[in-house]
Amino acid sequence: MEFLVNIKFNWPATISDEERARLRKEEVAHAAELAKKGHLIRMWRVIGRRENWGLWRAKDGTEMHEVLSSLPIWPYMDLQVIPLAQHAVDPSPPEKK
């Protein structure tokens, strides 16, 4: 199942620059692992904002929640998760597993 995920970051004023840098480094490494496992398919930055959109895969909504909540920056994320369904005229449907 595919999900379109919008992530906005809400860093608290109390977090240090060092802690933020550490979390970002962990986030990059963890995202690379999720990509290897087939969960993170594509990611786009929103220009000029602390925000991104991503195409993610999981077997269902419960697994998608588990994947997203495993991200190191999870406590500082405001998420919108949109489950996607196949469309009859999609010229390149996702691979079946």
Can you describe this structure?
By secondary structure, this protein is of the alpha+beta class. The chain has one domain (2-84): Alpha-Beta Plaits (2-Layer Sandwich). 30% of the residues lie in helices and 30% in strands. It is built from two helices and four strands, in the order βαββαβ. It has helices at 17-36, 61-69, and strands spanning 2-9, 40-45, 51-57, 77-84. The protein has a four-stranded antiparallel sheet. Strand 2 and strand 3 form a beta hairpin. The model has no long low-confidence stretch (mean pLDDT 93).
Short description:
By secondary structure, the chain is an alpha+beta fold.
CATH superfamily, by name, is: Dimeric alpha+beta barrel
Domains, number: 1
The counted number of beta strands is: 4
Order of helices and strands: EHEEHE
How many helices? The count is: 2
Mean pLDDT: 93
Poorly predicted runs: none
CATH topology: Alpha-Beta Plaits
Summarize the biggest pleated sheet: 4 strands, antiparallel
* Rounded Rg: 15 Å
Structural class: alpha+beta
Q: Order of strands in the sheet with the most strands?
A: 2-3-1-4
Distance between the termini: 10 Å
Proportion of residues in helical segments: 25-40%
Beta-strand content estimate: 25-35%
The coarse overall form would be elongated
Tell me the name of the CATH class: Alpha Beta
CATH architect. name = 2-Layer Sandwich
Question: Which features would summarize this protein structure in a list?
Answer:
2 helices, alpha+beta, Alpha-Beta Plaits, 97 residues
Please specify the SSE layout and strand pairing.
Elements lengths: L1 E8 L7 H20 L3 E6 L5 E7 L3 H9 L7 E8 L13
Antiparallel strand pairs: 1-3, 1-4, 2-3
